[in-house]
């Protein structure tokens, strides 16, 4: 298992995994479904070394994005020194391997190497299964919050409140 930055050549696979994740969310009917993300968003993350991939036998098993700034979602708490994780999408051929736990361990080291004090993530709505999954991976569930503004956020943030999670290092 290897974690590396995604490259422009990974774009088709990243978007394939996003579509699979959206279809899975649609099938569950209890969660907010991801929209089609803008290609420019992911291209920018790749160019800024903020889009990641977990490789198993040279195949992309999982992807996610990071940022050090997430003011729209975290509002006043954004002033903290944080690594934020977004859009974890798993290749179905590798599902069930608890990649969130691997991402958490990687993110803790990544955060420390960038002098950050927290690792945080969010999800839309009251997805009890995902809340429990993130808690099991070591995140503290901070609660469900209504955002003051969703301007500038992907479309799915308009469909409900956010569940916020953090790990204090």
From TrEMBL:
Residues 1-169 form the N-acetyltransferase domain. This is GNAT family N-acetyltransferase. GO terms for molecular function: acyltransferase activity, transferring groups other than amino-acyl groups. The keyword Transferase applies. CDD domains: NAT_SF (cd04301). Keywords: Transferase. InterPro entries: Acyl_CoA_acyltransferase (IPR016181), GNAT_dom (IPR000182). Transmembrane segments: none annotated. It comes from the Bacteria. The keyword Transferase applies.
